Amino acid sequence: MSQNSRLLKIAQKIAVEVGIDKTLNVEPKEASLVMASIIEDIDLVHQVRYAIQEKKTDEQIGELVRDILAKQTK
Fold first, then answer.
1. 54 phi and psi, to 5 degrees?
2. How far is it, in rounded angstroms, from Cα 42 to Cα 49?
3. Helix axis angle, 28-53 relative to 58-72, nearest 10°?
4. Could you give the count of Cα atoms lying within 13 Å of 46 in the half-sphere of its Cβ?
5. What 3-state DSSP class applies to 27?
6. Using an 8 Å Cβ cutoff, are 35 and 8 in contact?
7. How far is CA 23 from CA 17, 31, 34, 61, 63, in A?
8. What is the pLDDT along the chain (74 residues), one digit of tens a residue?
9. Which of 35, 34, 33, 39 is closest to 14 using CA atoms?
10. For residue 55, what are the contacts with CB-CB under 8 A and spacing of at least 6?
């Protein structure tokens, strides 16, 4: 099972547990895509906060964000 498949399976479980599927009135599989997007956003924030703590420059943080967002859109 690929990493992406594992992420979607975990995201689906979380989405169902917190009720995203019922709130949005969608199937659990669709709710997992919403949850996966939330997880990616949380990961982005975590990486940026870590870079700030490491005292990276604004330019380095900007480059990090661009790289992460480029990977997410692939």
1. -80, 5
2. 11
3. 160
4. 6
5. coil
6. no
7. 11, 9, 12, 35, 36
8. 577 788 778 888 888 888 888 888 988 888 888 888 888 888 888 888 888 888 888 898 888 888 888 887 66
9. 35
10. none
Token couple for 6: 């594992």
- Tell me which DSSP letter residue 1 carries: -
3-state secondary structure of 60: helix
The tokens for 53 are: 């703590």
Task: Report the distance separating Cα 71 and Cα 63, nearest Å.
Answer: 12
Distance CA 40, CA 72 (A): 8
